[in-house]
Structures are given as structure tokens and as C-alpha cells.
Amino acid sequence: MSKTVIQSYALKMLKMLDFRLSRRSLRRCQAVVILHNNICCFFFTGAAANIDAQSPVTRIAFGSGSNQTNPQIIWNAINDFNPQLFIWLGDNIYGDNKRPFRLFGKQRTFGPWKNVPRFYPSSELEMQSKFNLVKTHPAYSRLRNRSEIIGTWDDHDYGLNDAGKEFSGKDINQRLLLDFLDEPVDSPRRKQAGVYTSYTYGPIGKQIKVILLDIRYFRDPISSGGSVLGSSQWEWLEKQLHGPPTAVTIIGSSVQVLSNHSAVTSPFFSVEGWGRFPKERKQLFQLINDSKRDGVLFISGDVHFAEITRYDCATGYPLYDITSSGLTQSIEGVVPPSLRFLLRLMAWSLPTTGRVMEQNCRYKSCVYGKPNFGVIEIQWKSDPVIIKVEVRDINGSPVISKKIPLSDIQDGNMELAASDNKASRKKYCSLEVDLPWIVRYRLAIFVFSALSVCLLAFFGLAFSAIILSRRWLRKCKHD
């Protein structure tokens, strides 16, 4: 008898006996059932802490990008923060496989004539073993036993890099993800297509609604102009946003909502994001605006670095997107330490329209490219209520931080702080695609200009060497 069947049966029996044990607490228990002479006995150990419905949530942690083969040191810092709620934002494992770059041969994976995809999916057993590797890690197990854990997926735990609705293994991997998240056997998420869901925590007046989107199961190909969420998920999201109001609404997207880095890094590299589907992002903004819902924040992952971005011209108040990526996977982690300054220089020099630039950032760019996790702390007792959003490093120290008064993200309250001038207001009302071309392609112009200078210098030196060698040869002949 499987553990999920045991838990479902145990829950029914406990209800008959009038035990006050929630499904979410039960599902993390280690249950043993002994059937003897029609007598059923239950033994439970290690029930996880459950969020009290009458107590407001004040500490939330979130993250993405956890490669199960990399050191899992960051869980110690997350445990030290002691979150009531932890939110997975995707790439919870790296379930797909990656072939090395090959320029030549029959298995070429790079260049215009490549004949083999660089990424390929794992089998069901391989995926399950990778999920179990993270789930059984001692530090993560400690978090499971003390905090509520929820989540969605991104491409690598969906099963294939950058994959969308065309991926054939999505239904099997949906079941594996929900098992990883300890989703109850009778959960609607196990019966629906896609892993989108929502949760509400806290008492009336201090409620938090968490909406987790699935941007993989229904997504059309990138740059196709198609859909990100699919019609059924759009209908569901509209109902969620038009539902009972809450003080704070956190929308979790596995990819960035506000930033569109691909618009300024082309043609060198690109990243996924809602900006690659401009019509869909506009529809998302319009849906939030029409719902008149206050206190909406985005949290996101995917890009292997962290930042906080802001957009003021979508709704009646500023929208923020707190990006945390990754827990083990980081952009600086794949670069030799001696060259990391180049990444930081590029992050500082790239044009950005929405990045929140604060003095309390570790680096001048307010981008953090090492392992990190996100934090939301809500100070309900302060007047006004303050939402402190942070990105923290592997030791738990803040590297990016922003305090947002709850009143600032309520409809009709677009009066910005006194320190916000007209220039900042203009900045937060533009998108990367709206930048002048000379600014938007600044990186490409700089790189090609530098290459041109290097080539000219090379040919100049070569020409000078040829001239000097000819003169020297002539002199030798005369002597």
C-alpha cells in the first residue's frame, strides 16, 4: 500500500474519530497502518508545522534554481530565517540532461548545422530519484518539518529546457512534482492539467493570497505571439483576482514578469520571460487593473541572478517583481573568479528601465549573481504596515533590500515618495522595448566597436611589422 493511499485512508479514519489534524499536517507524517482483525492502528511521527489560520503570516521565503548535484548549503540560511512559508518558483531540480558542446562530428550540438538537441529529458525513474535527492537532504527536511512548503515548476523540473506545451512528458512529471511537494492525493492539482493553484493565509484584514502560475503546461513557442497560460488558466486567474480581497496578493511566476533582458542583450543571448509575450503581459496587467485588487506583488526566478524591478504604469499603483535565482545555480558560478568583475560591469552598464536602485545593494548594479533566496517580511504592527522585500546570500545576509509601505501598493495611491523625482517616474513607466535603439543595443554596439578596434589594431600592427621587416631585409642586402 503506497504512502499516499495510507494517508488518504488515515485522514478519513481520523475524521471519523474526530481528530483535529489538518490534511497538510497529515501529509507530511510518516504513517504506519496495521490491519489486524479489522482493527486499524495509526502511528504518526514528525508532523510538520502548520500555519495557524488565526495568526498573520509575517515571514515568507522563496527561491528557484536548485541543482540536486550541487552543494545545498543555502538551506541552512533559510532555516535560520525560520520562514512560516517557503515557496518554490521552479527549477526545483535539474531533471533534464545536457550534452556537452560539440562543434564537429555526427553528434554536433552547436552551430548552424547542429543535428542533436543539447538538452534531452530524463526517464520517470531518473526524475523521481532527482526529486528524492533534494527532498531527503537533511537541511531541506528540517525546513519541511517546520514550515509550510508550496510551489510551482519551471522548465528543468517540467522536464526539458525552455519547453512549453509540446513536451510529451509533462503529465508524468506533474505527478512527480506534486509528490515532491507533498500534495494530498485528493488535491484538485492532481486532477487538472497544469500545476497552477492558490492559497490564502491569515485572519481577515491581514490575509495573504498566494497565486502560483504555471507558465509551462500551456505555453506556446517563444516569440510565436501565442499564449503563456492557456485559456483555462486565464479564466481561473480572472476568478482568483476578482475573488474576496486580501491585504497582500503574491503572484508567483517561474519567469520574470517585469524585466525583459532579452530586449537589451540581443543578439548575444536571451532569457525567457513575459516580455517575450508582450500581448500576454499586457493582458496580465489589464486583468490586475480591472480587478481593482490592492497589494499585488510578483515573485519570480529562472535567470540565475537576483534583482528587484518596478513598473508604475500598469495599474493604479506600482507593481514590483522580486526575482530570486538561484538557490544553487548562479550566473557567477559558471565564470572563473578572476572574470566575475566583467559580469558585474555588464550588469551595471546594461540599460534597464525598471530595476530598483537602492543604496543598500551589495553591488552598484543592484544585481546579485551568486546563490541567493528571496524574503518577504510583513510588519503588520507598524503604522503604516511595511512590506520588506529582500534578496539574501548564502549566509543569510541581505544583498538587495526594499521597504514598501502597504499603502503605496493600493489602488488610487500613486503619490510616490518625496525622493522620487520626475526622472524616476519616467523610468518606471517605460519598458526595455521602448528605449531608443542606440541605448537598447548599447551592449552590441560596445562589443562590435571593441572588436573593430581590436581588428584594426591587429591589422595595423601586422602592416607595420611587414613594412619594418621589408626595410630590415633591404638594409641587410645593402650591407
UniProtKB/TrEMBL annotation:
CDD domains: MPP_PhoD (cd07389). SUPFAM superfamilies: Metallo-dependent phosphatases. Pfam families: PhoD (PF09423). The chain crosses the membrane at residues 443-468. Residues 74-313 form the PhoD-like phosphatase metallophosphatase domain. Keywords: Membrane, Transmembrane, Transmembrane helix. This is PhoD-like phosphatase metallophosphatase domain-containing protein.
